[in-house]
Design brief:
It is elongated and about 55 Å long. α1 (5-17) runs antiparallel to α4 and α2 packs antiparallel against α3. The mean pLDDT is 89. By secondary structure, the chain is mainly α. The protein has two domains: 5-87, no CATH class; 90-137, no CATH class. The chain starts with a helix and ends in a 7-residue tail after the last strand. A hairpin with a 4-residue loop joins β1 (95-96) and β2. The chain is built from four helices and five strands, in the order ααααβββββ. 20% of the residues are buried. The strands form two sheets. It has a three-stranded antiparallel beta sheet with strand order 1-2-3, with no helix packed on it. Strands 4-5 form a two-stranded antiparallel ribbon. The structure holds zinc ion. The site of zinc ion has 8 residues, from loops.
Length: 137
């Protein structure tokens, strides 16, 4: 079972919601590193290392805003990677209408999309379809 950025980001947010305590976050990062040893990707590991130092003392403290921003970033990146992971399963392709407007192959809803990702999510029915703007090889 892979420990995803998305999951990590959401857990971090939950901890921050209970009140900011840099020691607690440092300890939490340590315990994740121990539990998930060898199962986390390099990028997430680096994030964990940044959080370890929070235990060392107040001079290393990050503000709650910085930590929240970090959590948001990880959730967003995680979402994006999950989209990429579903790539093989999705068969339908959205239709280009005009300009940046796409049409959902499931419910015919149209929406304006600036996405450069391979898959787009319909704002109406939430189904994923291939982004016709992106050329895959
Ligand atoms: Zn739809």
């Amino acid at each position: 079972m892979n420990y995803t950025k998305n999951k990590f980001g959401r857990e971090l947010k939950t901890i921050l919601d209970c009140g900011y305590n840099s020691n607690k976050i440092g300890e939490w990062a340590h315990s994740i590193h121990l539990q998930q040893c060898g199962e986390i990707n390099k990028e997430l590991e680096e994030v964990l290392f940044d959080l370890f130092v929070l235990e060392e003392g107040p001079e290393f403290e990050l503000s709650i805003e910085e930590l929240n921003k970090l959590a948001d970033k990880l959730i967003e990146e995680g979402d994006r990677e999950e989209l990429t992971d579903s790539l093989q399963e999705v068969k339908e392709v959205a239709t280009i209408l005009e300009g940046r407007w796409l049409m959902c192959p499931f419910c015919q809803e149209s929406w304006e999309s600036e996405s450069k990702l391979s898959l787009v999510r319909c704002p109406n029915c939430s189904n994923l379809s291939h982004n016709p703007v992106v050329k895959t090889d």
